[in-house]
Amino acid sequence: MASTVPVVDAKGLGLTFQTNDGPVHALSNVNLSISKGEFVSFIGPSGCGKTTFLRVIADLEQPTDGTITVNGMSPREARERRAYGYVFQAAALYPWRTIERNVALPLEIMGISRTEQAERVKRTLAMVNLTGFEKKFPWQLSGGMQQRASIARALAFDADLLLMDEPFGALDEIVRDHLNEQLLELWDRTQKTICFVTHSIPEAVYLSTKIVVMSPRPGRVTDVIESTLPKERPLDIRETPEFLAIAARVRDGLRAGHSYED
Question: Per-residue pLDDT for 259 more than 50?
């Protein structure tokens, strides 16, 4: 049945970059299945392949070993069918375009009518609480608001899969907490599948239904932790024994990964 097909399914996935200094093994034997509606965070040290794995899903990098499917298709087919939205570390908004025109950009490229563009932009800006800022330029918005606009752009063409590469990493803790809360609300409303890269253990535990712990290069999956936290998660859930126990397991997985040898 189509409904049982994983949104992302990687088997024995590996990626080796060829460089002038020799091969760089970015990913090795990654086996991972992500189901529809899951919120999956990837955590590990810098250079462990978290972003590379996201880029493989998005067909921005091609694996050299193993297989991967996105909604039962190759990443290339998924990209051509616009099966995902991608939110980068930086908001990557065009400074000469207003917020509404930045959000509308992928819709323009897709050839969607102006009327439908306007409807989608209005709807997605409302989702990220940016109604009233349509005519502003990126430089007139705070960093957190710019990232919300970037999320709106990724949501505008209504893909079921959202890939997020450490989108809140450059923001201060107060703003980050607020955006974490908003992202959980957005995920609950849209029922999208989210793959989220982070370096923050509390962020990974707070947001996720599943946490993927990765080792240093070559990136391997050292642990996959299913969250037992309820779907409703106020920020103070981070002080509960259940939350702290999951965070401790993530921390242990990261330590184990650092001592992992072939």
Answer: no
